[in-house]
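Is this the right way to post structure tokens for a design question? Let me know if I should format differently. Anyway, here goes:
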């Protein structure tokens, strides 16, 4: 059962033929809680500031970190790859989890300004200046 959950599937425990308990992967759980919190209480986010490494690292509680990072992602303040980086997850892994959990998936920049900002972020990452 644990292997099933670790492969991204939900395990159901039934009683008298009726599902009573669902077991999910902990990262999926953190993502779902963060998305629900964002929609229940959308935070104020500075769209131009993005989210720094220091701000994410200052969040010691793992759920609080997911809440912070995914709120910025859902508000379109950071990209999926930046969210994955701040959560210490491979970008492909986060993308696949979002697909499986029906979390909105934004692919590519929506405007030329966003495309230029992504190019600048990539240059900074390449030169070791990001964060």
């Amino acid at each position: 059962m644990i292997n099933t959950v670790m492969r991204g599937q939900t395990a159901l425990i039934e009683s008298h033929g009726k599902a009573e308990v669902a077991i999910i992967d902990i990262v999926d759980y953190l993502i779902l809680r963060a998305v629900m919190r964002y929609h229940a209480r959308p935070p104020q986010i500075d769209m131009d500031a993005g989210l720094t490494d220091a701000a994410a690292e200052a969040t010691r509680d793992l759920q609080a970190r997911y809440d912070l990072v995914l709120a910025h992602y859902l508000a379109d303040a950071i990209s999926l790859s930046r969210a994955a980086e701040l959560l210490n997850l491979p970008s492909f892994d986060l993308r696949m989890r979002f697909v499986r959990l029906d979390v909105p998936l934004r692919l590519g920049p929506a405007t030329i300004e966003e495309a230029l900002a992504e190019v600048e972020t990539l240059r900074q990452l390449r030169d070791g200046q990001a964060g």
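Format looks fine. Someone answered above. Worth noting: DSSP finds seven helices and two strands in the chain. The chain has one domain: 26-127.
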